[in-house]
Amino acid sequence: MEANEGKALTSTVDGVEYERLPIKTRVVMPGDDLHEIVRTYAADAVQDGDVLFVTEKIVAITQGRSMLTHEITPRPLANFLAKYVTKTPHGIGLGMPETMEMALRECGTPRILLASGVAAVTKAFGRSGDFYRVAGEKARAIDGPTKNTIPPYNESVVLGPKDPMRVARDLKILLGNKVDVLIVDINDIGGNILGTTLDRADNDKWVRILSDNPLGQGHQSTPMGVIRKHA
Q1: 206 to each of 76, 191, 203, how far by Cα in Å?
Q2: Distance between CA 74 and CA 69 in Å, rounded?
Q3: 39 to each of 45, 86, 102, 196, how far by Cα in Å?
Q4: How large a percentage of the chain has pLDDT more than 70?
Q5: Which residue of 22, 89, 95, 155 lies most exposed, with the fewest beta carbons within 10 A?
Q6: DSSP label of 91
Q7: Which molecular-function annotation in GO is an example for this chain (predicted)?
């Protein structure tokens, strides 16, 4: 296992050094079996006591929760709201009608309207992030297309995974219970632990260990990796 370009293999958190070892796979497609992907690429890479971390994106893709942008017809409200989403160089977020449309479907129109209203008020006072705090994890987990992503996901919208806690538990059993499993949403501006077989009180620690996004989010084709405490 080698570090992705511009990334490091190790991270030190609270005085402890951890290895973050990317696992390269083929491109995961809708219709693929997540268990088969993990069995094929991760089973021989993990050791007792490791933590396998899997991106929420491949979990969602194998659950049939990705779609090409041309398959989505945004309603007028989605077109309107998307204009007011702050764009960042790290991803489109809900700043395009297609991703906003999926947020309306996933979270419900009343919640998205409430989140938009709260964000409009608090942004005037210099506060940011309230839209996602009100809209919730389903909205935050929606990934839009980016030009550097592996096709066909450079033209796709991917929703958050269903029941990531159950997915984590199932993968732990699949690997013989010798490792713990995290389902993670990590990008270049932050992260969240969506599913875990560990104590949820430690979620912040795992986010800090992965805070530099060692898997990357472009053409790396490393949708999972191993966290191993340095001997």
Answers
A1: 40, 9, 5
A2: 10
A3: 10, 40, 31, 18
A4: 94
A5: 89
A6: B
A7: coenzyme F420-0:L-glutamate ligase activity
